[in-house]
Specification:
359 residues, alpha+beta, globular, disordered N terminus
């Protein structure tokens, strides 16, 4: 009897492990924010502390600000002068540690995208026939800021430059990653340069077209919000993302095949980040209801580059928003952003932190 009981327990454990592994492999992680991974928070604090220690007193004064400094919300994705220490002013050793910060919180795929976005500044110098010492299109004009003390509660950091704006906060051992912006100009490199043919946001664009083109006429009536795409994302670089209502077609109204494509599209964004952040976000989407997430489209229904061309889509759930806009430069200049409608900049977690009596 005892032996039979042990065998049954063993088989149950094997089954549970198998289900867990399958869920992780598919990205369908079940849970909520209670699944936080303190390990990532500790690793992030360590790598950022190492970065701060590498800075001179002057650089440190530029880089480290209080967590409640208004600069934390002043974000943008255009070429401009930025607060913080830039790659241009760093030594080789400092640059390595700075890039290690990005490498830690992104997946290998996401880090590669970030590197390519930075490198596109070199492409724009060629396309726009700018001099080699041009500072408007500058792959070294990416700035790092740290808010608060790494390892304390709360604290955070960001890296920002043209077409890249990544924000991370750590509160009670949980890391948040929104708002998170990645853009690509050109979206498809057509110029005769070594990067020719590069499409950094290929999956984010192609999966969306695949989903759109699978819709029947009745579905398209709901999906299409207009024949002309907006020239910018609706939420742009606002401090708090907000849209009046969810529009388009809900996942619940899609076929099984369309649902799988829609999930692939969402994961094309989430797979940019550390597996902990990806799984954490997917669990939140499941908790809020995947079937409630809407897909909406404006503009061209085929991916064509040329004067007057362009397309836009959004993925909008109860707590989550993705916007993708490719309308500038004849539909060859992409802006994309991931927003948390309840906790951009870790604001919702910060509120709960203070409500629990943590001054």
């Amino acid at each position: 009897m005892k032996r039979s009981f042990i065998i049954i327990v063993f088989l149950v454990n094997v089954f549970i492990a198998g289900v867990s592994n399958d869920s992780l492999a598919s990205g369908n992680v079940i849970g909520s924010k209670q699944n936080k991974d303190d390990k990532l928070a500790k690793e992030m604090a360590a790598v950022v502390a190492t970065f701060l220690k590498s800075l001179s007193a002057e650089q440190l004064a530029e880089t480290k600000l209080p967590y409640d400094d208004p600069a934390r919300f002043d974000w943008n994705f255009t070429p401009r002068k930025r607060k913080g220490v830039t790659l241009k002013t760093m030594s080789a050793g400092q640059r390595k540690v700075a890039m290690d910060m990005i490498k830690l919180v992104l997946s290998q795929e996401g880090y590669h995208k970030a590197e390519q976005i930075i490198d596109l500044e070199n492409v724009l110098r060629v396309v726009e026939t700018r001099p080699a010492n041009d500072t408007y299109r500058d792959p070294e004009n990416f700035a790092f800021l740290v808010f608060g003390e790494p390892g304390s509660d709360p604290w955070g950091w960001r890296v920002e430059g043209h077409h890249l704006s990544l924000h991370f906060s750590s509160i009670n051992g949980e890391v948040t990653y929104t708002p998170s912006f990645m853009g690509s100009n050109p979206g498809n490199v057509l110029a005769d340069v070594p990067q020719k043919g590069l499409r950094i946001l290929k999956n984010e664009e192609d999966f969306a077209f695949t989903l759109l083109q699978s819709m029947d006429e009745k579905q398209l009536v709901k999906v299409l919000l207009g024949n002309t795409a907006p020239n910018e994302m609706f939420t742009s670089n606002s401090r708090k993302a907000s849209l009046e209502k969810m529009e388009g077609i809900a996942m619940a109204e899609m076929t099984a095949a369309q649902k799988e494509t829609f999930k692939k599209l969402i994961l094309a964004y989430l797979q940019r980040y550390h597996v902990t952040l990806k799984n954490q976000q997917w669990a939140e989407l499941e908790k809020s209801g995947l079937e409630k997430i809407h897909f909406a489209w404006m503009g061209d229904q085929k991916n064509v580059i040329g004067s007057g061309q362009g397309h836009y889509y959004r993925i909008h759930g109860p707590t989550f928003l993705i916007e993708f806009d490719n309308t500038q430069n004849g539909g060859n200049h992409i802006h994309s952003v991931v927003r948390d409608l309840t906790s951009d900049f870790g604001e919702d977690l910060l509120k709960m932190h203070y409500e629990k009596g943590h001054p």
